[in-house]
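Internal tracking record. Fields below are filled automatically when a chain is submitted to the structure queue. Please do not edit lines marked as system-generated. If the sequence contains nonstandard residues, flag them in the REMARKS field before resubmitting.
Queue: standard
Priority: normal
Entity type: single polypeptide chain
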Amino acid sequence: IPSILHLFLRFITCLLEQDAVVKIEVLHKPFACFQKSKYGDILLVHFEGFLESNGTMFHSR
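SYSTEM-GENERATED OUTPUT FOLLOWS
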């Protein structure tokens, strides 16, 4: 899970070109993770966000 979170944070950082506040909320974190990502893996990440300008929700689907 830490690798997925790191990838997600890097993606968000690339999207933001100005100083902004990003709130990240973890909705589910498994107690034990037996299958961890490694370099070269392809990951599917879903996220939702809200535009600061008007509050419109967007997502990665």
